[in-house]
Amino acid sequence: MYLGIDCSTQQLSLQVLSVDAGAPPRNVWQHAVNFDRELPHYGTRHGVLPSQDPSVAAAPPAMWAEALELGLAALASSGLDLSRIAAIAGSAQQHGTVYLDADGGFSRAASPIWMDTSTSIECGEITAALGGPDAAAQLTGSRVFERFAGPQIRKFWKQAPAAYERTARIHLVSSFMASLLMDGDAPLDPGDASGMNLMNLRMNEWAPRALDATAPGLGGRLPRIVPSSTVIGVLASTWRNRFGLPPAKIVVWSGDNPCSLIGTGLVEEGDVAISLGTSDTIFGPMREPRVSADGIGHVFASPTGEFMGITVFANGSLARERVRDRYGLDWEGFSAALRSTPPGNGGARMLPYFVPEITPRVPVARVERFDLDERDAARNVRAVIEAQMTAMKKYSAWMGVEIRTIRATGGASANAEILKVMAEVFGAEVRRFTVTNSACLGAALRAWHADERHGGHDLPWTQIVRGVAELP
Ligand code: XUL
Asked: Residue 376, exposed/middle/buried by CB under 10 A (0-12, 13-18, 19+)?
């Protein structure tokens, strides 16, 4: 059995796969720990600490650690034969940084996360030092983005130099969580490390020029980078003693998007997935790291050893919910509104930037309506969905992938009317991918792949994703 854990923005999820010889893996248990509801003493809203400054988004890393305890406690009382768990791998929201002092305490209480847009000045400084946006993208896979770890680290060094000085290790959420499991200092995988503007994308190693452009003495504060299928340790005895868990292998964690790539079965160039979650993302495998000339998307390393292209939109479910709530609708009413309005919406359009947007870059939240009466509920519903789908089509063209099929995943993919608009806008076949947490599933599949590889069997990825992630 293989355990996948996903530490996302709003919850920690766990999933156990049972792999029996010859048969495709079966999902035998799953569980989720919601941060706001089950850990209210941290005071988060949707997993984020309230902030006066709308450009600042942070979360308490101690909350993620406590969620891991709750999740493993639930696993202990699941009734599963825990001794069968051979390996554990994880997925985490990307870009968030965790700062530890030499004793393992937090040298920064709140971790900036991917929704933070407060580092434009630092982005400019790093970009200039790297020789411009294109040079930054060629080196690291992305131009310098506000939420990426590099500019966040630079801002911390500038604003709190003494605390930076006391910081012995800067983890991403993924390597922080893996460190807790093995009670040691976990490395990063290239997939998550490509979300930092610090890694040389073609070499899978830290880029000295980017480190120098970011903060002094940074290299010594970062984890090592190891291939995505690496077994990095065993489950620490504290967890084994507390919860009756076995000495399972710990596989290096990755980011939620690289894990979702595996969890949606995307291991060969041609198909893409659209995840409709807190953030909306469109992503797909790429054989070559073609970076985006207009600086829009990102190229990350894929767990398969190739690459993935991804474009991220901050106004995902949040924008849909704002519109839904504004007109007092439930999801059924939202669907009815889509059904009652024509494709193209009779020319009525909206720019739905309810929070600052990543793609295209909109630093200050603003919603604009064109030929659209704010009182017209149905047309406003269609306008937000058409705007989201049109933006996803326009801002993913840089990947140079001819989109044949779209696998739709994430919470809002349960809504058939939204998927209909997606198919209309892209002119592609859209299939709903019924696994709701593809990142968690991808983590469990990565655990299986790494365990086999550790045992000397290099299973092809097409075999790993067969059955679980194949289209119906
Ligand atoms: C990816 C990104 C988001 C987070 C959300 O670049 O910012 O998808 O990983 O979990």
From this structure: middle
Cα of 257 from ligand 1 centre, angstroms: 7
Q: Do residues 261 and 308 lie in contact, with contact meaning Cβ atoms separated by under 8 Å? A: yes
Q: What is the pLDDT of residue 436?
A: 72
Q: Enumerate the β-bridge partners of residue 2.
A: 17, 87
357 Cβ below 6 A of ligand 1:
no
Q: How far apart are the first and last CA of the chain?
A: 24
6, 10, 114: which to mutate for ligand 1, most atoms within 8 A of CB? 114
How is residue 107 written in tokens? 């040298």
CB distance 437 to ligand 1 below 6 Å: no
SS3 of residue 265 by DSSP: coil
Number of Cβ within a 10 Å radius of residue 22: 5
Cβ(327)–Cβ(426) below 8 Å: no
Q: Which H/E stretch holds residue 324?
A: helix 317-326
**pLDDT digit string, tens, across residues 160-210:** 999 999 999 999 999 999 999 999 999 999 999 999 999 999 999 999 999
Considering only CA atoms, which of 136, 113, 110 is closest in space to residue 124?
136
The position carrying tokens 């967890």 is 239
Dist. CA 245–CA 80, nearest whole Å: 11
Q: pLDDT digits over 35-49, tens only?
A: 999 999 999 999 999
Pairwise CA distance, residues 73 & 76, whole Å: 5
Task: Give the three-class secondary structure for 32.
Answer: strand
d(CA 425, CA 387): 10
30 residue type, one letter: Q
Question: Which stretches in the chain have pLDDT values below 50?
Answer: 472
The pTM (predicted TM-score) of the whole model is 0.91
